[in-house]
Amino acid sequence: MAEVFWPPQGSASLLGGEHNRIDGLAKCIGSAKYAYDVVPDNMLVASALSCPHAHATIRAIDLNAARNMAGVVAVEPLKKEGDEIRWEGDLVAVVAGETEAAVAEGLAAIKIEYEVLDHFVDDTDLDAATEANVTRPAGRNTQLQNRDEDADQEFERLFNEAAVTFEGHYGINVITHMCLETHGSTCESQGDKLVSHLSTQNVSGTPGQIAGPIGLTAQDVTVHCDYIGGGFGSKFAADAWGVTCAQLARNTGRPVKYMLTRSQELKNAGNRPSGFLRAKIAADKDGFVTAWDSAHWGTNGTSGAPVSQGVIPYVFNPPNRRRVATGIRTNTSPARAWRAPNHPQGCAITQTAYDDVARHLGLDSYDVFLRNLSTVGERAPIYEDQMKLAAKLMDWKAKWHPHGKGGQDGSVVSGLGMAIHTWGGGPHASRATCKIHPDGGVEIFLGSQDLGTGTRTVIGLVVAETLGLELEQVSVQIGLSEYPSSGPSGGSTTVGGVSESTRRAATAALNLLLTKVAPRLEADANQLEAVGGKIQIQGNQNRNISWKEACGQIGISPIEAQGEYAPRVTYPRNYDGKRLTDNGVAGVQMAEVAVDTETGVVKMKKFVAVQDIGLIINRKTARSQIYGAAIMGIAYALFEERIMDKATGAFVNAELADYKLPRLGDTGEIVVELYEPESEYNRGVIGLGEPPVISPGAAISNAVCNALGKRVSVLPITPQRVLEAISGGA
Amino acid sequence: MKPFEYAAPRTEAEAVGLLAADHVETEVLAGGTDLIGLMKQMVVTPGRLVNVKEIPSMQAISETSDGVVIGAAARLEDMAEHRLLTPFSSIGDAIVGIDSQQWQAQSTLGGELLQRPRCWYFRSGAGLLAANGKRVTEGDGRFHAIFANSGPAKFVNASRLAPALIALGASIRIMSPGKEDAEVQTLPLASLYRTPRDESQRENILSKGQLVTHVLIPHPQSLANATYEVRHGSGPEAPLVAASAALQVQAGLVAKARIVIGQVAPQPWESSEAAESLVGRPIDLVTAEQAGQLAVAAASPLKDNAYKVQLAAVAVKRAILKAAGLPTGGF
Fold first, then answer.
1. pLDDT value at A309 more than 60
2. Across the interface, do A105 and B140 touch by the CB < 8 Å criterion?
3. Binning pLDDT at 50, 70 and 90, where does residue A577 land?
4. Is B303 on the interface with A (CB under 8 A)?
5. For position A540, what pLDDT does the model report?
6. Residues A182, A261: contact at Cβ < 8 Å?
C-alpha cells in the first residue's frame, strides 16, 4: 500500500521541480473569470454613495428622488437617521440600476443631511493624540535580567554602563491593501438559492455570512471564486457589500454586480496599521543590545490599537527590555489583516534600531545582527546559515562600508542593509475528495481558493506525485463552496492545509485502486506502487500495468476517497521521524540601494532573499511568491502610504493615480535563494505567503541609512523625507 | 458618469461649431486619458463630448518655412518617433518620462497640454481652487505650488510637454467660433495658461468653443535643449518637479537661453533670471548651479512643500547640463 508521508529528499518525481501554473494560460489569454468578469444576462449594476465627512451623524436621509430616477431599480440604505459616520468614505446607501450612468445619477439624487463632528486622523504625533484624548493604553511589559531590581534604576545603570547609548525614532505609515480587483461580487438569485461570485479568500467560510442576513440558510448559498484579483488578508469576509449584493439580487430577482470603486476600496476595504516608536537603546562595544526601553504607538482605525507588543523588538529578545504600547483612535476605517500582521511594522521600526547600533559604533551591520542572534532562540543557527548565504549572494563583505562613509559618485551614494524575520505558516483545516474514474481520469475537489500564489498547481502536483502521473492528468477543482471545506487562505496556512488533505485523499484513493489491481498483478496490494504512469510491484518495473489499464479494474463507479487535516486532531505527525507539514520559519534579506543626495530619490540596486519553507512543492511558484513579496516590500519601503488630510480628515490619495506604487523599473535585481537542506525538507510543507514580505522595510531603510549615514526615520522613504533627513541633524 | 452627447466631426470648423453650442456644456475629447477619469468621478460633467481625434488636419506633423507644425491630435508616440522632432530632445525627454506605453499611445499633444491639474482636492470635487486655496494651505500641499501661490490657486500645471515647448518658443494655433466662419489666431504657448483668480476661470484662457488645433515650433538654430524630471519612481505619474532648458550656444558661450520649470506653479514657470545668468557664459557645473539657485530665489513654498524648492534648483541645473551634453551628477 502507498505510504502517506513524503518521499525522501531527492526521490520525488514532481515535488520540488519547476512547474508552470496549470491556470497560467487561462490568465494570460483572459479566459480566467474573476468575480468582476462574471456578467449574467439581464444583470443590474450597483454602486454605493460615500460619506464626504470624517466624522458626522446622519440627521436626515431621503432616498425617494433616487428611487424615482429613470433606470434605477432598487435603492438600499446602509445607514439610517441618527447613525454615526466615523470615517470619510464610509458607505451610506446603495443604488442598483440598468446602467452605470443610471446608477451614478441615482447616487447623485440621494439627499443626506449630516451634522459634522470633530475628527482626528493624525497617528504620527503621540503628544497631539494624548492632548486630543484619543489614546488608549495597549500594554506595557518589562523584562529584566536582574529580576528583583527596580526597573528605572536598573535601566539607568544599564544605560550608564553601556559602550553606546542612543535614542531613536522610527515609523511606518498606514498602507492599504490595494487589491487590483476591488472587493465585491456578482450575485444570481434563483428561487431560494443564491450564487455569489464573490472575490474572496474564503470560499468555504462565506456562504453562512451571506445566508443569515438575507433570510436563507448556508445550504442555499453557493460561493464561487475561481480567481481573485488580490486579497492580502482583506477578503476573508463576505462584508456588508457582499451581503447587500445578495439582498439586491433576491429583492429584484435579477443578477446584480456590486464592486467597490477604487476610492471606496482604499477608504473602506482594508489597510495595515501604522507603527511609530521611540526607543532608548544600550549596547556593548560589539553591538550586543543590553537594554531596550521603548514606547510605540499607531492606529488601526476607529478602535485604536497599535502593532502588537510581541514584535517589539522584532525577532531579537534583548536581556533587558521595557516596552509601552499606546493605541490611537482615528477617524479612519478599521484595519484588516495585511500579509504577516504586525511583523512588517515590527521589523521596520525595531531592526532599524538594531542597525543604528552598528551606525553609532561604526560596526558592520552584519556583525551586529550576528552578535545578537544569541537572543533569537532555537532558530539562531538557521539564521546564521542563511546570513552567510545571503551575504555571499550580495557580496556583502566586498561592498560593505561603514554608515555614511562609502564615497560619492556625483551626488549618488550607495549602501547595504539587512533584516531577519520569522513566521509560522502551519496548515489550516482542510478536507479533500479525490476521485479516480474507471477511464483513468483523476479529479481532486477542495473548497479552497487560489489567491494567485499557485495553490491550484500545488494541489495538482501533490495528486500527480501520489498517483505516479503527470500534472496534466489531474483535474483540480477548487473555488466552490460546495466542495469539501477548506480553510480561509491567510497567514501562510493554505499550502500546508491543502497539501496535507490532498496527499491523504490521493493516497487513500490510490490504496483503494491498488486493492482492486492486486489480483491482476497476482500480488498483494501492499507490494504495489504507482510510478511513471504505471502500477507495478515495488522495485520491479517488469511486472506492471498501465494507469489506464489499472483503472479499468475499478468497475462502474469511480473510486472516491477523502483526506483531512484538522488542527488539534492527532495524526502520526512524527511517524518514523517524518511528517507532512510543520510550522515556523526564519528568513534573511539584504538590500543594496543608491541614493541621489540632491533629489532624495532612492533606487533599488539589488535585493537578496534567503528563505526556508520546509519541503518545496513547486520551486517556480515558491520563487515567484518571494519575488512578489520583495516587490510589495519595496512598495511600502519606498513608495506607498495612505495620506490623511488632518484638516478635513479625508484620505486624499485614494486613487491609483495618486497612491504611489513601484513599477518593474523600480525594483532592481531580485535574487531569491530557497533554503532547503535535508533537515528542512524533512519537516514537510510550510507556508510561504507571509515571511518574505516582512524584512524589506527594515532592510531597505538600513541600506538607505548606510548610504547616507543618517536615518530616514519613517517609511516610506520618499524623496521629501530623504531631503529632510539630509538637511536635519539626525 | 452622466449621460452625454457624442460628436465625432471630421473638420476643425465643424468641431468648433459643435463645441460652441450654447445650450449645452461641452468638452473636447482627444485621447481621453484625463477627461474620462474626471467624468467618471463626476468632477467634470459635460453634456456633449466633441471627439477631435479623427480630424485628419489635426493629426499630421509637418514642416513649413517657419518651423515644425504638430497637429493637436497627434499622438505622443508618433511625436516620439518623428524625424522632424529629433532636434528637440527636450520634447523626447518629456515623452519618455511619461513612461507608460498606454499613455504614450493614447494621449494627444493637445490633450497633454490641456490636461487638468492633478490637485487631489480638485480631483475629489472641491473645485479647482479648493475653497479659495484654503483646503491646500490648511490641508496637505506636499505636491502643490511653490511659485505664484499667493492667490487662491495653489495647484500646479499638469502638462509634461509645456515646459519643453515654451522653452523652445512654441506657439499655438487656436480656432474660435466667428460670426460666420470660424476664426483663427496664433499665440505664444505660454499665454495659453493662466492662474485663475476665481472658480469661474480655468487654468487656461480658452473660452467656449475655442479649439487648439496645432502647435508650431520654430526651426532650431544651434539649439541645445533637454528636459530633466525629478521622479519618485517610474510610471506615468507626474514628476515631483521638472525643468526644460533651451540654449543657443555660439562659440562655446550661451547667446540666448530659456528655462521653464514644470510642476511648481499654476502655470509652467519660466525663469528669466536663470536664463539671463547663462548668457555670455559657458555651460559648466558652476553656471548651471547658479542658474538653478537663481531660478528658485523667489520661491514661496507652502508649509508642506519646501523640499520642492531644492528639487526645482536641481532640476534646472540638470536640465542645463543635460542640454549641453554634460553629466548631471545624479540619476
1. yes
2. no
3. low
4. no
5. 84
6. yes
The HSE-up count of residue B59 (CA atoms within 13 Å, CB side) is: 10
Q: What is the mean pLDDT of residues B122-147?
A: 97
Residue of B100, B103, B185, B199 lying closest to B155 (CA atoms): B199
The x, y and z cell numbers of residue A329, run together, are 483612535
As beta bridge partners, residue B171 has: B188, B216
CA B314 distance to own-chain centroid? 20
| DSSP label of A8 | P
Q: What is the pLDDT of residues A647-684, one digit of tens each?
A: 999 999 999 999 999 999 999 999 999 999 999 999 99
By the 8 A CB rule, do A461 and A623 touch?
no
Residue with cell 487560489: A450
Mutation site, B1, B49, B124, interface A, largest A CB count within 10 A: B124
pLDDT of residue A539 exceeding 90, the answer is no
Q: pLDDT tens across B231-264, in order?
A: 999 999 999 999 999 999 999 999 999 999 999 9
Pick the CATH number of B5-323 from 3.10.450.50, 3.20.20.70, 3.30.465.10, 3.40.1010.10: 3.30.465.10
Is A537 touching B (CB cutoff 8 A)? Answer: no
* Domains, chain A, with CATH or none: 24-32+427-577 (3.30.365.10), 35-118+183-259 (3.90.1170.50), 271-424+583-727 (3.30.365.10)
pLDDT at A2: 87
Inform me whether the pLDDT recorded for A573 exceeds 90.
Answer: no
Provide the percentage of residues in chain A whose pLDDT is more than 70: 98
Residue A397 is placed in which grid cell?
563583505
Closest chain A CA to residue B1:
A101
**Which of A104, A411, A655 is facing B42, going by the closest CB pair?**
A104
Say if residue A578 is exposed, middle or buried (CB neighbours under 10 Å; 0-12, 13-18, 19+): middle
Q: Between chains, do B237 and A660 touch, taking CB under 8 Å as contact?
A: yes
Dihedral class, residue A514 (left if φ above 0, else alpha if ψ from -120 to 50, else beta): alpha
pLDDT tens for B216-240 read 999 988 799 999 999 999 999 999 9
Query: CA nearest A64: which of A122, A114, A102, A110?
Result: A110
In this prediction, residue B179 carries a pLDDT of: 82
> Residue B306 has what DSSP assignment?
T
> Residue A180: how many CB atoms within 10 A of its CB?
13
3-class SS of residue A129: helix
Say if residues A198 and A238 touch (Cβ distance below 8 Å).
yes
Contacts of B93 (CB under 8 A, 6+ apart): B164, B226, B227, B228, B229, B244, B322
Average pLDDT of the segment spanning A582-603? 98
> In the prediction, which pLDDT does A495 show?
98
| Residue B243, beta-bridge partner list | B228, B261
For the cut 80, the answer to whether the pLDDT of residue A578 exceeds it is no
Q: Is A627 helix (H, G, I), strand (E, B) or coil?
A: helix
- In contact, A95 and A107? CB cutoff 8 Å: yes
| Mean pLDDT, chain A, integer | 96
Q: At what angle do helices A619-638 and A343-361 cross, to 10 degrees?
A: 70
Q: Are A271 and A175 in contact (CB under 8 A)?
A: yes
Find the CB nearest A660 among B3, B139, B233. Answer: B233
With CB atoms and an 8 Å threshold, state whether B123 touches A658: yes
User: CA-to-CA distance for A306 and A124, rounded, in angstroms?
Assistant: 12
Instruction: Find the CB nearest A410 among B230, B232, B329.
Output: B329
In the predicted structure, residue A572 carries a pLDDT above the cut 80: no
Q: Report d(CA A469, CA A14) in Å as an integer.
A: 9
Q: Taking Cα atoms as reference points, which of B176, B217, B180 lies closest to residue B86?
A: B217
- Give the alpha-carbon dihedral of B7, B8, B11, B17, to 10 degrees: 10
Collapsed DSSP state (helix, strand, coil) of residue B204: strand
ipTM of the complex: 0.97
Residue that wins the pLDDT comparison between A96 and A540: A96
